Amino acid sequence: MATFEHFYKSLSPNSQVRGKEFEKLVKWFLQTDPRWNNLVKKVWLWDEHPQRDEWGPDCGIDLVFEDLIGNNWAVQAKCFDSHNSIRKEHMDSFIAESSDSRFQKRLLVTSTDNIGPNVERLLSRHKVVKILLEDLVNADLEYPEDPINFKNAKRKDPPKPYPHQEEAIKDVLKRLRDEDKGQVLMACGTGKTLTALWIKERLKAENVLVLLPSLSLLSQTLKEWNKAAKDKFKWICVCSDKSVAKEDKSNDNWISNTSDIGVPVTSSTEDIKKFLSEKGSKIIFSTYQSSSLIVDVHNDENIPPFEIVFADEAHRCAGKVSKTFSFVLDEKKIRANKRLFFTATPIILSNQIKKQASVNDIEIASMDDISKFGNIFHQLKFSDAINRVPPLLTDYQVVIVGVDDPLIQQQIINRNLLTSDEENIYDAERLAASISVIKSIKDYNLKRIISFHNKVKSAEKFSSDIEKIYQLIPTNEKPSWSVNSDYVSGSMNTNKRNTKLKRLKNLKSDETRILSNARCLSEGVDVPTLDGIAFIDPKSSQIDIIQAVGRAIRKSEEKKIGTIIIPVYLGDTENLEEEILASKFNNVWKIILALKSQDDSLMETIDRLRIQIGRGSGTSRGGDGLEKIVIVPEKISNKFSKSIKTLLVKNTSENWYERYGELLKFFETSQEFSPEKNTPLMRWVNWQRHLYKENRLSKERINKLNEIDKWVWNEIDAYWENMYRKLIEFKKKYGHARPPQRKTALGSWIQTQRARYKRNQIHKEQIEKLNQISDWSWDPFRDDWFNKFEELKLFIKENGHARPPQRKSVLGTWCNKQRSLYKKGKLPQEYIQLLESLRSWTWDPNESDWEDSFIKVENFIDKYGHMKIHETNKELVSWVDKQRRSFKDGTLSKIREDKLSKLVGWVWDPLEKIWDEKFAEFKIFVSENGHANIPQSHPTLGSWVGRLRNRYKKGTLEIEKIKILESYDQWEWNILDAKWEENYEKLLLFIKKHQRLPPQSESEGKWANKQRQRYRKNVLEEKRIQKLNNIELWVWEFNIKEDKSTNS
Fold first, then answer.
1. Fewer C-beta within 10 Å: the chain N or C terminus?
2. Hey, what CATH topology would domain 386-651 get?
3. Burial bucket for residue 297 (CB in 10 Å: 0-12, 13-18, 19+)
4. Molecular function terms in GO for this entry (predicted)?
C-alpha cells in the first residue's frame, strides 16, 4: 500500500515529465478520492478534452472537470517540492486563462503547503479551491506505486460500525419510529460523527442537512462521511467568510477561512435551491452561522422539508439563544421530518436560571426541554466508554501540582528570576506553571502534551518560557531527556500548522514535545495521540474542559492512561490566610466538576466522600476512591488545617450529601423519631419531604433517603403519638381535654383528628385511644352551637329582634347558617324547637326586609311622582334592581310581582322602555329623511344608535331588534359604512341643488376626490363604485382647471 510520499519519490527527475505525471495523478485523485468522487461527473486532462482543438494549447490549465450540478472547473496541477513556495507569477496565467464563460469554478492541486500571502489573497479573490500537500497526504487513498502502475491504487476500505456504535444506531432508529426529534449523547472520541452517517444510511434518507459550529468540524465531517459512506451521495458546503467573520476571534479556530477547507463552498441561495432540485441522495453540510441561508431557502414552500437534520455539537444551540444557532430549533424556519441533536456535553439550565431568564425576558434553550431537543435516544458517557470491555477510551489521572514560593526558589537554584535578567523577567505564576508541567513530565514519563490557554499570546509566551525554565532546573529535578515546546494558532498558514503537528507526532526517542494553543486544537482537528494535556490558564466553560480532556483520553495502543495536569501557584503559604490559599484552587474545582459531569464513578466517589464528611468521618488519605486524582503536595502548610482532598470534595459536590451524612449520624446516635425543630437539619428534612410531595425530588435522592431504616416520608404517625401524650398531660393539668383551638399546636391537632374521623381517615387504634379520654368528644360543634344560641338570646333582649348584622358579624353568619340548614332539612329537630321558642325568630328574615324596602319605594313615588330613583340612594336602587333580576330569573314570587306591577311608573325592563321611546323617534326620522342613516351628531338619536351598534358588535343585541333595524333602507352596523352613506347623501343633495359636481374647496368635493383616489388605488369597494356610477354627473377623472373655472 503506497503513500503519497512514496508516489512522489517515484516521479521523474525531469521537471516537465514530472509535471505531466503529477497531472495524471490529479485526474486519478479527482476520480477516486471519496469527497471529490462524489462531486466530479467527468474529468479530462487538457489534451483529452473534447473541445481541445477549439480551446488551443495548454496555457495554464492542466485539467478540466464537470461537476454533478453542471459547473465546469479549470484545474491547475503544480508539482512542487514540499519546501518550495507557490508565488504569484506561478498562478497568473491560470487565473487569466480560466477567467471566461467556459469555466465557473477553479481548483489548484499542489504538492506543497507553502502558499505566499500574495498568492493567498489572489486565490481568495478569485475563489480558487485548494488541494494542498496536507490534503494529498491525509486522503483516504492507497496511492499508485509509480506514475505507470495505477492498477492497485484505490480508495481505502470504508470503516464499519463498532458494537457500541451499532447500539447507538439501533436505539435511535427504534425511537425515530414514533418520535420526530431526539438527542444522541456520546463521549468525545467514541465516533458520533460516523454514527450519524450510518443512521442516515439505515433510514435511506436522501435529503439531509448537517449543521456544524465551525469550518474545522465541517471540513472533518465532510471528509469522514465521504470516507465511510456505503452509498454515493452528492454534497454541497454552505458557509461564507462573512459568517465566520462574525465569530468571536478569541475562539482561535483551526480553520478560519473558507479557502482553507480544501473543497468548494457556497453562500448562494440559488445554488442551494438548484442542489436540492437534484435527484438522488444529497447532503448539505452547513455551519450554524450560515444556517440563515437554509431558512431563506425554506421560505419557498415549493422546497420540500429535509428528511432528517443532524445538529452536531448541539450544546451550542442551548443556553442564551443565539439567532444563528437557534434556527434549527424552529420547525417553521428549517423544515424537517426528523431532527437529531448530537453532543458529548449537553447543557441543562437550572430552574433558577430559567426563572431569572423569564423575569428578564431573555430567550434561552435548555437541553432538558423536549419540545425543542426531544428525548435522549442514546447516551454514552466517557466513564462508560472507559469501563467498557474492551475500552473505547483510555482512563485518565488528574495531577494537581501545587507550587509555592519556597519550591520555586529550590527548583531554580538561587537564581532570583523574579527580578533579574532584563530580557526574561518571569513572574512567579508563570514559573509555577512551567515547573508543574516539567515535574509531571519527569514523574509520569510524558512525551506528547498539549497545553491550553485563554489567549494565543499566552500560549506563545508559555511555549517560549518553558524551554528556558527547563534549562534552569537542577538535573535531578527534571527529565533526563530534552523538552521542546512550540505553539499553534488558527491564524497560522496551513504549512506552518501541519509542520508543528508533524513534529508532535514524529518524536525522537529522547524527546518530550509540548504544543501550546488557545482553543484551535479542541475540536475538528486530527491531533496525534497524546500522553497528556495541561490547563495552564483558568477554564470556566465545562464544554471547553471536556473537549480538551477528550484529547488526552483517546484510545491508543501507545499509552495506558491520559494525564491531566493542573498547575496551582500557592505563593507564600506560611503568611497567607487559609481562605485565600483555598481560593487558589478554584480552577481545579471547575475542572473536576466538568470531569464529574461525564464520569459517573468519579461523581459517586465524590458524593460518597461528602456524605462521610457529614457523618464526621472526613476523607481518608488512601483507598477513598480518589486514586485517579493525584495532589502534590498532599498538605499545603502547617497553617493550612484542612486537607486539599477535603476541600476538593466540598467544592465539587452539593451540600445535600453532607446534610444526608448528618441525618445518618443523627439516626445512629439518637432515639428520637426526627431532629429537633428549627434546627438546620430538621429544616432540611422537611424540605426533602416537601420536594417529594411536589414530585420535585430526584429519583436518586429518593432512593438514598429510602435506604435509611428510620426514614419516613409521612411523619404523621410519629407526630400523632407525640401529640397524644401532650393531650393526656393537658387533661391531667387542667381537668379537661378541650385546649384552645386557636394559636396552639395541640388545639390544631385535635381539630385535625376530628376532621379525619368524619372522613374515615383515622386509624381504629387511634380512635380507641382518644375514646379512653373521659370527656373526649368527636363533635365539638354542639358546644359551639349552644354558645351561639345563648349569644342570640342576649342579642334579642338588647335589640328587640333576631336579625343581627349579616356582614362582619359572627352571630349574623351563624343565624344565616341555621336558616340555610333548616331549608335543606339538615337542622336537627332539637335545634329547630329551641330557635322557634324565641319570641322574634323567623326562618325568612328577608320577608320583613322586603316589606320595609317596598314601603320606601311607595313613599318615593308619592313624593316625586315617578320611579327615577337617584343613584345616590344606593340601597333603594340596589333593591329595585334586585327585584327586576329576580323577575327576569323567574325567582320572584307572584305576590311580590303583583304588588310591584301596581306601582305608578314601575317597569320590569327600563331598557325596553327606552327602546320604545327612541324607536318611535327613529321612525319619525326615517319618515322625514327617507333613510335610516342617522348621523352620530344627531342630538337625541346619535348616541342611541351608537349604543345599539356597540351591543350588536358584542353580540348582546336581541335578534328581533336586529331584524327590525336591518329592514330599514341604508341602515348600517358599521359606523364607517354609515358615515360613507351620510357623505354620499350630502353629495346627492349638492348635485341636486347646483346641477354640477362639487369643487374640491367644498367638503362634498373633498370627499368625492377621496373616493377617486381610493378608486385609482383599487381599494374602493365594488358596491360603492356602483353607487357612484349611478350618479348622472359623476366622473372618475376630475379636471382641476374645470374645478377652478366652476368656482370663478
1. C
2. Rossmann fold (3.40.50)
3. buried
4. ATP binding; DNA binding; helicase activity; hydrolase activity
